[in-house]
Automatic annotation (TrEMBL), chain A:
Its main location: membrane. InterPro entries: Bact_Polyamine_Transport, MetI-like, MetI-like_sf. Keywords: Cell membrane, Membrane, Transmembrane, Transmembrane helix, Transport. It holds the Pfam family BPD_transp_1. Belongs to the binding-protein-dependent transport system permease family. CysTW subfamily. It comes from the Bacteria. GO terms for biological process: transmembrane transport. Residues 67-255 form the ABC transmembrane type-1 domain. The chain crosses the membrane at residues 12-36, 66-87, 107-127, 234-258. One of its GO terms (cellular component) is plasma membrane. CDD domains: TM_PBP2. This is Spermidine/putrescine ABC transporter. Gene3D superfamilies: MetI-like (1.10.3720.10).
């Protein structure tokens, strides 16, 4: 016991934490660094600064197509999984019924299932159903992996939503629709937007399911994977990767801020009894 | 000195009392369980009325049916002479203060109070004037821009009150409004609520499980048990003349003594008891004789310790077996020969009741007026 405490207080803990963070983020830091290097091979020492690789990106039609595909898939998957997530989260936070926890667990399961297995199973099902592989099948696959995230964000937003708020609105003369517009929606809107952003980001970065379920149309991660075969294209991929990284980071930050705001809104009423 | 808000008197007290809420044989069943069982009640215009009872007695169910959040399985409710059947909550002339207050957390105090007024589309600053007036009524002037999250429990309660009062309802419904407050604030709000009700003259219907709250604030109280209304009367009558043992017990301490009915006529009852001898008492209105037995009750504070050689016209003698000190008062448990249960006596400490040693023989004085007969 004292040995552990001495170890913790001796600065070893700080060193461990530092190494841990370096191991996690160092590779990520290399991405933007090499993306502005003039040399085509990612090697130290750096040879010079350039934005050349970024300027090339909009001049690559295949990349623009992939970006457009990713956007379509991301937006569709985000909207679909958020709508389904709203229904499920509302039911799980609002009502008590047998099997509620089991259902919740089943919805969350894709989080821990091996993604490659999920992708192969979905491919088999899609083909059995006679669906031809397209962006549509990718959207279906992405909805499956997005719903657990959507549910997590939405349940934390809906949980503790005091029913008497809706009753109070009705008591003060507001109609059912007015109550939804003036009370329910403003209170859960941050959670809904947060869920949309999270799902979009996940779909944007997702590779395995998209790889198995898409036909001829590539999404951004698939495009990147394809480019890796050509050594000369690597700096362009790094530039694109950097942009994706920044976009994901920003979207997730906004989503998290909104989720926390939603949680605070619905739950401060409950704090009264504490 | 801030200017006091001008309060419109909505009711003239000299007028004969008129019914505001009529509840006729209302039953609310959930499957085989009856949350409310054939309840009938008239609540008068401008009165502060309390529904008092333990949890699960049906008081909240009844309040929610008046508000329109629930519907009777059978029976009818009318408010202001208008039957409420089929009228949804948003079109009833009632407003409610919720137990959780239900303050809209995404709006500030002013927006909360103005919430219901927005639909009325009032002209020329009328909305702002009414919001200001309502905030003044609950002493929240100047806090209009605060967010609900920045308010204390007591302040939230006032916002909930202002938000309901600003609608100028015919009836204000209060669902355990003070239960989330600490004791001191609760007592202060009791006084304020009563004062506010007197000022605005609106009919208040309060749901509470706290007998002191009901006694302190109400004009009349309905005591409820198991979905049924046991007694409807003024606080004083409920406390002094409870209709049965259950009501007596719920409203504070009561000594129960077995009695035999000797004589029963229109207004009075003569009973024989072991400790108190033959007693003639007023017959309670709802007294229904059940065999030859009855119960005689006396509140612990209506028994007084007789000091030294003092005598009283009516007294009983006994021995102190327990003493409990409560600061301003002392509870004595006194064994009386012949009574199966010892009497509980509450005595103020001005004369040293807190120093009476256990085992002392004492005499207790009582007023026969304080004895109340109850059906078994």
């Amino acid at each position: 016991m004292t040995a552990v405490r001495r170890f913790l207080s001796s600065g070893w803990l700080a060193a461990y934490a530092f190494l841990y963070v370096v191991f996690l983020y160092l590779p990520v830091i290399f991405l933007p660094i090499f993306s502005i290097n003039t040399a085509a091979t990612p090697k130290f020492p750096l040879s010079g600064f350039t934005l050349h690789w970024y300027e090339d990106l909009p001049r690559t039609p295949a990349l623009l197509d992939a970006a457009w595909n990713s956007l379509i898939v991301g937006v569709s998957a985000a909207i679909l999984s958020t709508v389904l997530g709203i229904l499920a989260a509302r039911s799980i936070t609002r009502y008590r019924y047998p099997g509620r926890r089991t259902i919740n667990g089943l919805i969350m399961a894709p989080l821990v299932l091996p993604e490659v297995i999920v992708a192969i199973s979905m491919l088999l099902v899609m083909l059995q159903l006679g669906l031809s592989l397209s962006l549509f099948t990718v959207v279906l696959g992405h909805v499956l992996v997005c719903i657990p995230y959507s549910m997590t964000v939405l349940t934390s937003g809906f949980e503790g939503f005091d029913r008497s708020l809706e009753e109070a609105s009705s008591d003060l003369g507001e109609s059912a629709f007015g109550t939804f517009r003036r009370v329910t929606l403003p209170m859960v809107a941050p959670a809904i937007i947060s869920s949309l952003l999270v799902c979009f980001t996940i779909s944007l970065d997702e590779f395995i399911i998209a790889f198995f379920l898409t036909g001829t149309e590539a999404t951004l991660p698939i495009y990147i994977w394809g480019q890796l075969r050509f050594a000369a294209k690597l700096p362009g991929v790094l530039a694109l990767g950097t942009l994706l990284l920044v976009a994901s980071f920003l979207l997730m930050t906004v989503a998290e801020i909104l989720r926390r705001r939603a949680t605070r809104r619905t739950q401060n009423e409950g704090g009264l009894y504490a | 000195m801030p200017e006091q808000p001008q309060v419109e008197r909505q009711e003239d007290r000299s007028r004969p009392e008129r019914a505001m809420i009529e509840i006729r044989s209302v039953t609310r069943s959930y499957g085989a369980f009856k949350a409310l069982d054939d309840a009938s009640l008239t609540i008068r215009e401008g009165e502060f009325f309390s529904l008092l009872g333990p949890s699960g007695c049906g008081k909240t169910t009844l309040l929610r049916m008046i508000a329109g959040f629930d519907n009777p399985t059978s029976g009818s409710i009318s408010v202001g002479g208008q039957p409420m059947e089929g009228i949804p909550a948003n079109r009833r002339p009632t407003n409610m203060v919720f137990q959780s207050y239900a303050i809209f957390p995404h709006l500030n105090v002013e927006q909360n109070v103005a919430y219901g007024l927005k639909r009325l589309k009032l002209q020329g600053g009328e909305e702002k004037r009414r919001v200001e007036e309502a905030l003044a009524q609950v002493s929240l002037t100047g806090l209009g821009k605060r967010l609900a999250t920045e308010l204390s429990g007591g302040q939230r309660q006032r916002v909930a009150l202002a938000r309901a009062l600003v609608m100028r309802p015919k009836v204000l419904l209060l669902d355990e409004p003070l239960s989330a407050l600490d004791k001191k604030l609760r007592e202060q709000m009791q006084v304020e609520l009563r004062r506010l009700q007197q000022a605005v003259g609106i009919t208040f219907v309060l749901v509470t499980h706290d007998q002191y709250e009901a006694l302190a604030m109400s004009d009349r109280i309905a005591v409820m048990f198991g979905g049924r209304i046991a007694q409807v009367a003024s606080p004083k009558e409920i406390y002094q003349r409870p209709v049965n043992r259950q009501v007596a017990d719920f409203l504070g301490g009561m000594n129960f003594v077995k009695a035999e009915i000797v004589e029963e006529n229109g207004a009075s009852l003569v009973v024989d008891t072991l400790g108190f001898g033959r007693v003639k008492t007023d017959k309670p209105k709802a007294f229904v004789r059940n065999g030859g037995g009855a119960t005689l009750g006396i509140r612990p504070e209506r028994l007084r310790v007789l000091w030294d050689n003092a005598t009283a016209k009516f007294e009983v003698a006994g021995k102190v077996v327990e003493r409990h000190y409560f600061g301003e008062i002392t509870h004595l448990i006194v064994e009386i020969p012949g009574l199966e249960k010892p009497l509980s006596v509450t005595e103020t400490n001005d004369f040293g009741a807190d120093d009476i040693p256990v085992g002392t023989s004492i005499r207790l004085a009582y007023d026969p007026e304080a004895l109340v007969a109850m059906a078994d």
